[in-house]
Amino acid sequence: MNSVDELIASLTPEMVMGLKNAVEVGRFPDGRAVSAQQREWMLEAIIRYEETCVPEPERTGYIDRGQSECGLPGDDLIATTRSDDDD
Question: pLDDT tens for residues 64-74?
Answer without folding.
Answer: 888 656 655 55
